[in-house]
Automatic annotation (TrEMBL):
Domain ABC transporter intervals: 2-246
Keyword ATP-binding recorded: yes
GO-annotated molecular function: ATP binding; ATP hydrolysis activity
A Pfam entry, by short name: ABC_tran
Keywords, ordered alphabetically: ATP-binding, Nucleotide-binding
Protein known as: FeS assembly ATPase SufC
Organism per entry: Lysobacter antibioticus
Annotated InterPro entries: AAA+_ATPase (IPR003593), ABC_transporter-like_ATP-bd (IPR003439), FeS-cluster_ATPase_SufC (IPR010230), P-loop_NTPase (IPR027417)
Length: 252
């Protein structure tokens, strides 16, 4: 589904990703862990198509297409969801309205019919039920005054509505509280399916107490230095990232 080969990325002229390879199959959840500054968010941003990132080498294929030459909107329409895609607060814009516009933009780009408000509400009710969420966030402005946990719940709700094939979640290093972590984990677990893959980027092991990944990768200094099963996350928890320092491959 997602095949990254020997990816080299520069930010502001500095090498950040230095030959990263990753192969993500449908149905799988892969976790990317790593110390601060390793390039985790850079990986998320390059997959999102954010500006300011320069690919100097390597390829990224999503379902056989060159992801790197698609615009962010085209990536979304192709089924790539990036959790930080709509992090902004949009005061005065009703969240329900916003979500319908986002979904319909994607449907239109795929040549599908747009949903009218009745059809959309039906879908909203279904998704709220799947996620055991209340509709309270829907009637507010987009992310307006949302707490960290509410933003996360809203993000997961976007994910449920947009039904992506590949969801990339960058949990950033800025301490999510336990409610926010659980909101993310519950959402991921409820939305796991054989044809959907997740790339969960996290600095902390604790998220993986709630999400059981199929594969854990450790990203250090722009490369994946170790991959393994869920037990790898526990080893990191026990020994810290220092433990992997000597495994960082020399510059090639
Ligand atoms: P992580 O998410 O693993 O903590 P990042 O991908 O955010 O790491 O950052 C990796 C490195 O790239 C860091 O050294 C960071 O300072 C640098 N970096 C990231 N974004 C920029 C930018 N816009 N300009 C300059 N340096 C950047
Ligand atoms: Mg960081
Ligand atoms: Mg980061």
């Amino acid at each position: 589904m997602l095949k990254i080969e020997n990816l080299h990325v520069q930010v502001a002229g500095k090498d950040i990703l230095k030959g990263l390879s990753l192969d993500l199959q449908p149905g799988q959840v892969h976790a990317i862990m790593g110390p601060n500054g390793a390039g985790k968010s850079t990986l998320g941003n390059i997959l999102a198509g954010r500006e300011g990132y320069e690919v100097s080498e390597g390829t990224v294929e999503f379902e056989g297409r060159n992801l790197l030459e698609l615009e962010p909107e085209e990536r979304a329409a192709a089924g790539v969801f990036l959790a930080f895609q709509y992090p902004v607060e949009i005061a005065g814009v009703n969240n329900t309205y916003f979500l319908r516009a986002a979904l319909n933009a994607q449907r239109k780009a795929r040549g599908e019919t747009e949903l009218d408000s009745m059809q959309f509400l039906k879908l909203v009710r279904e998704k709220l039920a799947v996620l055991h969420l209340k509709d309270e966030l829907l009637h507010r402005g987009v992310n307006e005054g949302f707490s960290g946990g509410e933003k996360k719940r809203n993000e997961i709700f976007q994910l449920a509505l947009l039904e992506p094939k590949l969801a990339i979640l960058d949990e950033t290093d800025s301490g999510l509280d336990i409610d926010a972590l659980k909101a993310v984990a519950d959402g991921v677990n409820a939305l796991r399916s054989p044809d959907r893959a997740f790339l969960v980027i996290t600095h902390y092991q604790r998220l993986l107490d709630y999400i059981k990944p199929d594969v854990v990768h450790v990203l250090a200094d722009g490369r994946i230095v170790e991959s393994g099963g869920p037990e790898l996350a526990l080893e990191l928890e026990a020994h810290g990232y220092e433990w992997l320092k000597d495994r960082v491959a020399p510059e090639s």
